[in-house]
Automatic annotation (TrEMBL), chain A:
<feature type="domain" description="Transport inhibitor response 1">
    <location>
        <begin position="90"/>
        <end position="136"/>
    </location>
</feature>
<dbReference type="Pfam" id="PF13516">
    <property type="entry name" value="LRR_6"/>
</dbReference>
<protein>
    <submittedName>
        <fullName>Protein TRANSPORT INHIBITOR RESPONSE 1-like isoform X1</fullName>
    </submittedName>
</protein>
<dbReference type="InterPro" id="IPR001611">
    <property type="entry name" value="Leu-rich_rpt"/>
</dbReference>
<dbReference type="InterPro" id="IPR041101">
    <property type="entry name" value="Transp_inhibit"/>
</dbReference>
<dbReference type="InterPro" id="IPR036047">
    <property type="entry name" value="F-box-like_dom_sf"/>
</dbReference>
<feature type="domain" description="COI1 F-box">
    <location>
        <begin position="31"/>
        <end position="70"/>
    </location>
</feature>
<dbReference type="Pfam" id="PF18791">
    <property type="entry name" value="Transp_inhibit"/>
</dbReference>
<dbReference type="Pfam" id="PF18511">
    <property type="entry name" value="F-box_5"/>
</dbReference>
From TrEMBL, chain B:
<dbReference type="InterPro" id="IPR053793">
    <property type="entry name" value="PB1-like"/>
</dbReference>
<keyword id="KW-0804">Transcription</keyword>
<dbReference type="InterPro" id="IPR033389">
    <property type="entry name" value="AUX/IAA_dom"/>
</dbReference>
<keyword id="KW-0805">Transcription regulation</keyword>
<dbReference type="GO" id="GO:0006355">
    <property type="term" value="P:regulation of DNA-templated transcription"/>
</dbReference>
<dbReference type="GO" id="GO:0005634">
    <property type="term" value="C:nucleus"/>
</dbReference>
<protein>
    <recommendedName>
        <fullName>Auxin-responsive protein</fullName>
    </recommendedName>
</protein>
<feature type="compositionally biased region" description="Basic and acidic residues">
    <location>
        <begin position="58"/>
        <end position="71"/>
    </location>
</feature>
<keyword id="KW-0539">Nucleus</keyword>
Length: 594, 337
């Protein structure tokens, strides 16, 4: 509170010359707050949506909001430019940026597409020298950028890189070397050059501030000695996720040094351990009284799972999606985890394993079942509709599902959503494209119809299986809260997409691949795209003319096309997004901005 | 026998179709010479106990039937082959369509019955386009023919589909991922990190199965209808259906009942699956196996590696008992008889 009254008068002059009359003691009217008070109040607002709403109220509120905002979230890095951001928000300490379209995760976006962080960093160095946090998703980050980051922001605390590319472990070395106040280093699932594990040894001996360290997805081995010492001296460490190079005996030593951990990602879980060491490891887990989240468990050998049991009862999130457990092994483990809210598994646990989940985890809210053999059509593997049914029956609080399966029925889905009507995220992937209900041979329209009719809170939906336009009629009509829709190998005609664009009032992201939607469908959303973040269409029936027309009618949209190699008029990929920054200047040659 | 038969094939050759969701096969066609030789040798097959494994051929077999029948058969057989409505063995080896539909889709049967007009003209480069997108229709018949016939040709080893996806299945010892699935870029939607992780460390379910067997042998019981005792074979020592078939023939030759010549062979124009063809050469037996689900299947449908993984036991079955396994084929056989 004290800071309010010590505000630098210079700042007041530059920001609000027209409002200079608004000193604390010169309240114009009872309903008008002085800026400082307003800013203080607004600084308690954290939700981006709330802040956006606030900024639209009036000019005063817009200004107060922009001065009080310290965290900025940019869902599409090209929707705005570094300059515009810098102009509007003078006091940013935390930046979250997302770059490439989501389908780049699945190799649908060519290399060198863009979303490079560097220009942003240069601007931030100029305008936000006190920057503390940078969270990037699907951005291209080079080692030079990481070094620049490490050198430019003396107070830098948290770096999180998810699904990014372009850097190597050398870049991480720069971070470890120079960021003296680092509290978080979270490196997840990036396409990077894993040169060596020596980056970890670059943390100075007097460095003690780390709270979050996640290097699970890096392959090269780090020096265990350096890691052990790092963990020992960072007393505030709460999250530790190591990579496969760390074995069980090493894990035990780490746990002994950091019993305060709340989140643990183990390394490889498959070592030959003597009985004595096994007991020591089990004790180490017993001593981790705060452990809520457990992940890693690569190559988890059933033989050693029992060491986890003492820690299981307090677990709220268990990530077994890299542990190839069979149903009998998994069932024994899950019986120890009654407090789970969130579970990620491989489909090696099969329906039987999911039945056990239904029985043992009544508090479950989120489940993700990943395929162990995504490219093998052998139906004997994996999970079916009965596993999903079993979970829905036992876990009535379920609201988030990601489910990869070989077969599904309309009836099963209808029952599932009856059991769990509170779904906010429903992502069903029937892995064989265009596969009908395997019992009735009908399209899966009624399944998703049931989902959108029953789950009124639905925000995110991914559809699969054989789907006609009827599915999209249902979606457009009933999915009032839907924000994100992913469609693949579905629909019969333009009408399907038109239904979605004509309904779904809250739609923000629409990504479509391999569907028979053409220009009529694309153009039916003319008015809608400005209220959305982005539209992605690939391998559909859209042509250059359609895209040109869209670009012409809607100048505030960027319409970016990647053409079909053989056919000049046919469009292979089109990415449409609203932007206040105009067409991007860094588009590679294969991207045509219309 | 200098019948100038043309070889035709239906497989789309080099172009791995970029179009997603098409069940095109990646069968590799044989060269012209192979095809010709194939056809010749085929005609000369004897008709002792044949365990009708696709592409299998016991090299020591004598030439069989005489005269007109042979000619007629030859043509018929060739037509059957060439019309190639069925999947070829090599095709299966090379990771054809994932759906191992039992021999004979309706369409192909009809075509064969009509006995002709099935040849699709060869393109200039010697390859014809696949018919339709159905896996069965686009089989490459002569590949299966050539794969085992005559000169001990070993079926082509499973090739990973030319796709950048890590071969999870291959790592497991399965045949290469079925073409239809693997060709679709970015489907199923799984992040690269996860895909690569699973490829490097294939799910241990399969490895466990092997581990349980200890040294990596896979002994399965083999029974033969009418034989007084069973045998056990380690199917891991064989590299192909042909090998297995030869071995089993030798093992059970003492139990062979009756000759097959009297059954005639000119009738088999519908049977282009070689196992059936062998069967219909007059053998009374078919080779079947029980898979992991407990279902009895006709041997030869799936790639060898997949068969090895799923085969729990083998049974040399009387053809009359195999009705459930090969409906149309068996009916035809019966009709002729």
């Amino acid at each position: 509170m004290n800071q309010l009254w010590k505000m630098d008068p210079n700042i007041k002059k530059t920001k609000n010359s027209a409002d200079s009359a608004n000193y604390p003691e010169a309240i114009q009217s009872p309903s008008q707050f002085p800026d400082e008070v307003l800013e203080k109040v607004l600084s308690m607002l954290h939700s981006h949506k709330d802040r956006s709403s606030v900024s639209l109220v009036c000019k005063d509120w817009y200004n107060a909001e922009r001065w009080s905002r310290t965290k900025i979230f940019i869902g599409n890095c090209y929707s705005v430019s570094p300059e515009i951001v810098a102009r509007r928000f003078p006091r940013i300490k935390s930046v979250t940026l997302k770059g490439k379209p989501r389908f780049s995760d699945f190799n649908l976006v060519p290399q060198n597409w863009g979303a490079n962080i560097h220009d942003w960093l240069v601007m931030f160095a100029k305008v936000y020298p006190l920057l503390e946090e940078l969270r990037l998703k699907r951005m291209t980050v080079s080692d030079e950028s990481l070094e620049f980051l490490a050198m430019s922001f003396p107070g830098f605390k948290a770096l999180s890189l998810l699904s990014c590319d372009g850097f190597s472990t050398d870049g991480l070395k720069s971070i470890a070397t120079h960021c003296k106040k680092l509290t978080e280093l979270d490196i997840q699932e990036n396409g990077i050059d894993d040169v060596s594990g020596s980056w970890l040894s670059a943390f100075p001996d007097n460095f003690t501030s780390l709270e979050i360290l996640n290097f699970a997805s890096l392959n090269s081995e780090v020096s265990f000695d350096a890691l052990e010492r790092l963990v020992s001296r960072c007393k505030s460490l709460k999250v530790l996720k190591v990579n496969k190079g760390i074995g069980l005996d090493q894990l035990q030593r780490l746990l002994v040094r950091a019993p305060q951990l709340m989140e643990l990602g183990t390394g490889s879980f498959q070592q030959e351990l003597m009985f004595r060491h096994c007991m020591e490891l089990e004790n180490a887990f017993r001593n981790c009284k705060n452990l809520q989240i457990l992940a890693g468990l690569w190559d988890a050998s059933y033989v050693y799972l029992h060491v986890l049991y003492p820690a299981c009862s307090s677990l709220t999130f268990l990530n077994l999606s890299y542990a190839t457990l069979r149903s009998d092994e998994f069932t024994k483990l899950i019986a120890h985890c009654p407090n789970l809210r969130c579970l990620w598994v491989l489909d090696t646990v099969e329906d039987k394993g999911l039945e056990a989940v239904g029985s043992c985890c009544p508090l479950l809210e989120e489940i993700r079942v990943f395929p162990a053999h995504p490219f093998d059509q052998d139906i004997n593997h994996g999970v079916t509709e009965s596993g999903f049914l079993a979970v829905s029956h036992g876990c009535r609080k379920l609201h988030y599902v990601l489910y990869f399966c070989q077969q599904m029925t309309n009836a099963a889905v209808a029952t599932i959503v009856q059991n769990c009507p509170d779904f906010t995220h429903f992502r069903l992937c029937i892995m064989n494209p265009g596969q009908p209900d395997y019992l009735t041979d009908e399209p899966m329209d009624e399944a998703f119809g049931a989902v959108v009719k029953t789950c009124t809170k639905l925000q995110r939906l991914a559809v699969s299986g054989l789907l006609t336009d009827l599915t999209f009629e249902y979606i457009g009509k009933y999915a009032k809260n839907l924000e994100t829709l992913s469609v693949a190998f579905a629909g019969r005609s333009d009408w399907g997409m038109q239904c979605v664009l004509g309904g779904c009032p809250k739609l923000r992201k629409l990504e479509i691949r391999d569907c028979p939607f053409g220009n009529a469908a694309l153009l039916s959303g003319l008015k809608k795209y400005e209220s959305m973040r982005s539209l992605w269409m690939s391998a559909c029936n859209v042509t250059m003319n359609g895209c040109r027309l869209l670009a012409k009618e809607m100048p505030r949209l960027n319409v970016e096309v990647m053409k079909d190699e053989e056919d000049d008029s046919h469009v292979d990929k089109v990415y449409v997004y609203r932007s206040v920054a105009g067409p991007r200047r860094d588009a590679p040659p294969f991207v045509l901005t219309l | 026998m200098s019948m100038p038969f043309e070889e035709h094939d239906y497989i789309g050759l080099s172009e791995v179709p970029a179009m997603e969701n098409s069940e095109k096969n990646n069968g590799l066609p044989l060269g012209d010479n192979e095809k010709k030789n194939t056809a010749k040798v085929l005609n000369l097959k004897a008709t002792e106990l044949r365990l009708g494994l696709p592409g299998s051929e016991s090299p020591e077999r004598e030439t069989g039937h005489g005269g007109e029948d042979k000619n007629g058969y030859q043509l018929g057989v060739l037509k059957g082959f060439v019309s190639g409505a069925k999947r070829g063995f090599s095709d299966t080896i090379n990771g054809g369509s994932g759906k191992w539909v039992y021999s004979g889709s309706g369409g192909s049967e009809v075509n064969l019955a009509n006995g002709g007009g099935l040849f699709s003209p060869r393109g200039a480069n010697g390859a014809a386009k696949s018919i339709g997108a159905g896996g069965v229709d686009s089989a490459s018949q002569q590949t299966f023919v050539g794969s085992g016939v005559g000169k001990e040709t070993v079926p082509q080893s499973p090739k990973p589909v030319q796709e950048k996806k890590p071969q999870v299945s291959a790592a497991n010892g399965h045949a290469a991922a079925p073409a239809a699935k693997a060709q679709v870029v970015g489907w199923p939607p799984i992040r690269s990190f996860r895909k690569n992780s699973m490829a490097i460390n294939p799910p241990k379910t399969d490895e466990d199965a092997d581990a349980k067997l200890g040294t990596g042998c896979l002994y399965v019981k083999v029974s033969m209808d009418g034989a007084p005792y069973l045998r056990k074979v380690d199917i891991k020592i064989y590299s192909s259906y042909k090998d297995l078939s030869s071995a089993l023939e030798k093992m059970f030759s003492c139990f062979t009942i009756g000759q097959c010549g009297s059954h005639g062979v000119h009738i088999r124009d519908g049977m282009s699956e070689s196992r059936l063809m062998d069967l219909l050469h007059g053998s009374e037996y078919v080779l079947t196996y029980e898979d992991k689900d407990g279902d009895w299947m006709l041997v030869g449908d799936v790639p060898w590696e997949m068969f090895m993984d799923s085969c729990k036991r083998l049974r040399i079955m009387k053809s009359s008992d195999a009705i459930g396994l090969a409906p149309r084929a068996m009916e035809k056989c019966k009709n002729r008889n």
